TrEMBL record:
EC number assigned by the record: 1.2.1.9
Lineage of source species: Eukaryota, Viridiplantae, Streptophyta, Embryophyta, Tracheophyta
Gene name as annotated: LOC108848320
Source taxon at top rank: Eukaryota
Organism whose genome encodes this protein: Raphanus sativus
Active-site annotation: E264
Protein name: NADP-dependent glyceraldehyde-3-phosphate dehydrogenase
Known catalytic reactions: D-glyceraldehyde 3-phosphate + NADP(+) + H2O = (2R)-3-phosphoglycerate + NADPH + 2 H(+)
Length: 503
């Protein structure tokens, strides 16, 4: 159970502690932040409302711990990461339980998230020892006007303090996808979890604590965004920000200083369906892509653009599958569970009502109880409806019928987002042309959009993000290239002793 067994020390009465200087602490604010269970709409957990002074302390520790961590051999860093991964996986049950309670993720998917996170940490440790153990050697005479008098050695050095801000929908996985690359590369790490997801994050951080990372290297600060959000992101000690979430990321990027940013800010992933597509395959992928975790994934299929000639058949197939989706509590592994908050549910409802007023066809009756919204497929959506462009982040999926592939591509490219997209066709040549034409970070051919496997590059264009993720790209983003140039008094071209007389 969450907060028990090896996790007892992270709890103070009924409030979870924050993690600073290798210890679990109670904030001097004396205040806490309530975490509301999306399904019951009752307070499930409480976390510390940390102060700006506590943030300052954490940053100071992070700066000093990083200096010695950067001198820790790579294999030792990797060893500790492997240890943390094993502890995390061994304790998947209580962590998954907190995911169920604070973000209403179905129980099975919650366990998957924790296991996937352990695997990501281990993969990152292995990738890190390989790519950080290599550098480049360049010779000066490849550039015009130069003799071979300069040898340039390049290596990768850490940035310093990395600030990681994961989103509510993958609080554990999208936290470790930032923590592990930062640490293997020799950085220290300050984590600011989302409010909903904070308790899962605190449990995950305890696994790193138990693995034996040095004091101050990892910290986890909880609290109100209004109190410590800007203070953290604009803190002078921060050397890199890795953020996943909504358009808050745009304002963070405007306020952040001259530091590398890794941002993933959502998407309106289009699913383009051609006449020759395997419609059963498309329908299954629309269900998986559009409705898993109730559509609360940045990579969810968020608009279907189907050729008119096959639209009726596809809609019927999807409708039949929607009817089979189970709706209810995450504890019972229902496919559709409550969305994360009342304000999210209200926002989704606003999009649905707009579509209704403007004449979309409702394939199911719209139904909502509290934060629970029944899955809804909206057919005959037109570009003047908000749902054609906005991200519901809920179990509502619009279908736009198109008369040409160009119309589909144009709709996809007119979006301010550009995360992923997918195209279904049996013609690989057409698929490649469409993939090239779609202005998105990734295009999936004959499958729904997805970030994983977690070592694949993952990036968004336009408002969907800055930088690229995936294990290798994250390690590279969290390092800087350092070069040392050896200058020779005379050019040195080849082996042999002829030159010695010139010395
Ligand atoms: O919500 C954003 C995530 O990066 C999506 O990850 O494709 O594994 O669900 P996923």
């Amino acid at each position: 159970m969450a907060g028990t067994g090896i996790f007892t020390e992270i709890l103070d009465g009924e409030v979870y502690k924050y993690y600073s200087d290798g210890e679990w602490k109670t904030s001097s604010s004396g205040k806490s932040v309530a975490i509301v269970n999306p399904a019951t709409r009752k307070t499930q957990y409480k976390v510390q409302a940390c102060t700006q002074e506590e943030v300052n302390k954490v940053m100071e520790m992070a700066k000093s711990a990083q200096k010695s961590w950067a001198k820790t051999p790579l294999w030792k860093r990797a060893e500790l990461l492997h240890k943390a991964a094993a502890i995390l996986k061994d304790n998947k049950a209580p962590i998954a339980e907190s995911l169920v309670k604070e973000i209403a993720k179905p129980a099975k998917d919650s366990v998957t998230e924790v296991v996937r996170s352990g695997d990501l940490i281990s993969y990152c440790a292995e990738e890190g020892v390989r790519i950080l153990g290599e550098g480049k050697f360049l010779l000066s005479d490849s550039f015009p006007g130069n003799e071979r008098t300069k040898y340039c050695l390049t290596s990768k050095i850490p940035l310093g303090v990395v600030l990681a801000i994961p989103p509510f929908n993958y609080p554990v996985n999208l936290a470790v996808s930032k923590i592990a690359p930062a640490l293997i590369a020799g950085n220290s790490l300050v984590l600011k979890p989302p409010t909903q997801g904070a308790v899962s994050c605190l449990h995950m951080v305890h696994c790193f604590h138990l693995a034996g990372f040095p004091k101050g290297l990892i910290s986890c600060i909880t609290g109100k965004g209004s109190e410590i959000g800007d203070f953290l992101t604009m803190h002078p000690a921060v050397n890199c920000i890795s953020f996943t979430g909504g358009d808050t990321g745009i304002s963070i990027s405007k306020k952040a200083g001259m530091i590398p940013l890794q941002m993933e800010l959502g998407g309106k992933d289009a699913c383009i369906v051609l006449e020759d597509a395997d419609l059963d395959l498309v329908a299954s992928n629309i269900i998986k892509g559009g409705f898993s975790y109730s559509g609360q994934r940045c990579t969810a299929v968020k608009v279907v653009l189907v050729m008119e000639s096959v639209a009726d058949e596809l809609v019927e197939k999807v409708k039949a599958k929607v009817a089979k989706l189970t709706v209810g509590p995450p504890e019972e592994n229902c496919d559709i569970t409550a969305v994360v908050s009342e304000s999210s549910a209200n926002f989704i409802e606003g999009l649905v009502m707009d579509a209704k007023e403007k004449g979309a066809t409702f394939c199911q009756e719209y139904k909502r109880e509290g934060n629970l919204i029944w899955p809804l497929l909206l057919d005959n959506v037109r570009p003047d409806m908000r749902i054609a462009w906005e991200e519901p982040f809920g179990p509502v999926l619009p279908v736009l019928r198109i008369s040409s592939v160009e119309e589909g591509i144009n709709h996809c490219n007119a979006s301010n987002f550009g995360l992923q997209g997918c195209v279904f066709t049996k013609d690989i040549n057409k698929a490649m042309l469409i993939s090239d034409a779609m202005e998105t970070g990734t295009v999936q051919i004959n499958s729904a959009p997805a970030r994983g496997p977690d070592h694949f590059p993952f990036q968004g264009l336009k408002d969907s993000g800055i930088g690229s993720q995936g294990v290798t790209n994250s390690i590279n983003l969290m390092t800087k290239v350092k070069t040392t140039v050896i200058n020779l008094p005379t050019p040195s071209y080849s082996m042999g002793a002829g030159f010695i007389s010139r010395l």
